[in-house]
Amino acid sequence: MTDSEQDQDAETTEGAESVGEASEESSQTAAEQSVAALREELLEDVQDATAEQLADELAASRLTIETLREENDALTETVEEQEAEIEDLTARLKRKQADFQNFKKRMERKREEETQRATEDLVDRLLDVRDNLQRALGQDDAEALRDGVNSTLKQFETELDRENVEPIEPEPGDEVDPEHHEVLARIDTDHPEGTIADVHRPGYLMAEKVLRPAQVAVSDGTDDSESTDSGE
Fold first, then answer.
1. In which domain, by residue range, is 96 found?
2. Could you say which of 124, 142, 163 is where a domain stops?
3. CB 198 within 8 A of CB 172
């Protein structure tokens, strides 16, 4: 092979290599461009999608925040209203308690005053009875003394009647009433057994309440049974 042929082959080889390199570079550039384009497209898609999502999330977050604020404001208002109501009820309760305490004190004073007036009135009327007893005892005549004492006794009974006081004075032969009679003894009488034979001391009722029971003796029925046997 001549030198010229060798040079031509070398040039051909170099040209082929240059064409190959150019072709390779062209392929790399196209690939890089495709990748870059794809990246840009994907980035654009991602960016667009993220922006929409962020916008939706931001809108939802704003709505949630606004809703929470409204709920918080409503709860705050409710709490304030309830606190105000509690304060009002507490104040009203304190006033009611104070009014009730004042009412109790007024009623106690009124009751004490009424009791005092009733006692004073009763004592005043009993003083009249005492004066009449003194006048009766000042009589020299026994008959006049008796009349004075009887008159005073009637006056005293009148005062008891004004106070709604009634005597408990059972009759011999009456049945014993445990609520009104106090049995002191059992004696021999001709009354039926277990009935009242004698009244030792009368009792008294005031407004249907027993002030003191009548003290009585009851019959054991001995004389009654003996008289029955003798009759037979």
1. 79-163
2. 163
3. yes
